[in-house]
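Notes from hallway chat w/ T.B., transcribed later so I don't forget. T.B. wanted the structure written out for a chain they're using in a teaching module, and asked if we could keep both sequence and structure tokens in one place. Agreed to drop them here.
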Amino acid sequence: MIHMLALVVACLSLAWVSVFVRFWVKIFVTSCVRWDDWILLLAVILFSGQCGCVLVMTTIDPQQPHTTANIVSYMFLASYDLSIMTAICIKTSLAISFNRFFSRRWQRLLIIAITIAFNTYAITELLLGLFFCGMPGKMARKDSLQQCTHWSNMLLWWLVAAIFNAVTDWIYTLLPATVVWTSNLSRKVKASVSIVTAVGALSSTAAIFRVLGTGSFTALRDFNPTNLTVIACVVLEMGLGIIATSMMCSTPLPGMLVNRFSWSRTFGMPESSVPLPARLTLLIDDISDGEDDCEVDKDAREVRQTYSNI
């Protein structure tokens, strides 16, 4: 119980801090807040509700078995539904960000197709989960979720959803990393992407352990979805997913701050007072000192791409 409490508090705190840093960068550094930022903010709010339900499940007084079973059943369904909505928001936010990042059409279409497929399945599962035990009010008269008529059918949905979620998580992690690592970007950019990829890989690994904890198609009736292993994996997966998504825009923060500090020393004026086209011209002119035309063109494209994708 203590370990679960520590895990929930740590994941929730780091998720909120990462989203706060992302909004700080978008508001005060780039002055551009987009739809994917607001969707990610909704994701961390839903994740907070999920963590609240998990805390109720793990800290409830076991002295009253009947009441405890009912509350745990309600809290499990609520936390699971909130985790589905959180996953939808995270993947939608990532898809919007990736559409600005990917240059090839097949990459954008792949991300869009995966996102639509996952969101469709997740919304369907969310609606079915509300009524798999009859009307939602009948849940209070059940001592266990296994007493529900469609219990085995919902287990199939949960298992398929866990597998589908793990597959999409790894695609979201590996595809952008592969694109960046095979490009001609600088080592600093690749290092930043590697950090984000590492956090995303941890989230995807938690998704795999969630599948393993869910069980197999041959032993569904022995699966108890309220066990702490599955709950911990879901919390860890969503928390790390939010952190990795936030880091996509937060990793350039130290370099941005250094550039802002050195801008006035280099050009004799505050950066915010210079329009963006003039800023690009000054940067390109400064880059071109002592370099050949090919390097200037390459760096100029990187500058334009950096400012256009933020």
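Follow-up for T.B.: Confidence is low (pLDDT under 50) at residues 253-304, 306-310. Might be a good example for the class.
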